[in-house]
Amino acid sequence: MASPTTATTPPVTPVRTPRRRSRPADRGLDRSFRYVAVGSGMLILATLASVAIFLIIEAMPALTHEDLASEIPWIPKGGDLWSVVGPLIFGTILAAIVSLVVAVPVAVGIALFISHYAPRRMANALGYVVDLLAAIPSVVFGLWGVMVLAPKVQPVWQFLVDYLGWIPLFAGDAHGNASNPPRVLMTTSIVLAVMILPIITAVSREVFLQTPRLHEEAALALGATRWELIRMAVLPFGRSGVTSAAMLGLGRALGETMAVLMILSPGLLYSFKLLVASQQQTIAANIAARFNDANDIGRSTLIATGLALFVITLLVNLAARAIIARRKDFSGAN
Q1: What is the pTM of this model?
Q2: Which Gene3D superfamilies match (predicted)?
Q3: CATH number of the domain at 81-330, please?
């Protein structure tokens, strides 16, 4: 029996497209662009280093002074530099964390509504309004917080003291009452949450819109509901982006000055009482309040507190980069 003949296909030779030779002008532009990009990156590092050097030099008199309390009236008698820097760091971090706890869930909810629930026209309009909220000056937020928000939330703060006063965060004063007027850290944190809301919302919205369409269609093909789609496909993909947005908002809350200065009744205590006045103060607001009337050693002390804020902000950004780098491989993007 004859074996069937097999047809052999001739090998296909790949067609090589001729490489386009770059012209001397293109090579010159490429070289120039590379120099500009490298120079821009070096300029950022140089600016950061110059700010750090300036803060260290100007803060050195306060760092080496032995008796600051004798020359600076707002330092407690017998206190040192840390007796001022410590409470200010505590108040700054506490106000930023409370504002972040309030803002992040609301911002993520708004971003999900814009990206996956709202009709297109409503989503465009709402996104424009959220972006417009970021353009409002902080002094306007401060006026709104003092004249509008504070009187409205006073009954709410008193309710929290009456029924949740056993929790240290919601404890009242010595008489078991919330401060009236409520120029307290909780009111300040609510205003800060409103201020950082558009930043977190805008970044989270753009991240959620980048969710791969195939991931969403696969979830729907498996019978997932809208919430299950968001939980299984959208949120895992956007986790690192939401973390980045939260860190951006945290940086804004840490450095906010005017709104805090106008609303918060200052104090230099390590206190978790959010509904009692004259307990905490932030670094930026303290610098703005005392810089003009301070003497030379007082200005050096304020700059030393600014150095502490600089270090805190730097550490927050480094931590954010580490979190993002750790979680990007598990975000669902790959």
Answers
A1: 0.85
A2: MetI-like (1.10.3720.10)
A3: 1.10.3720.10
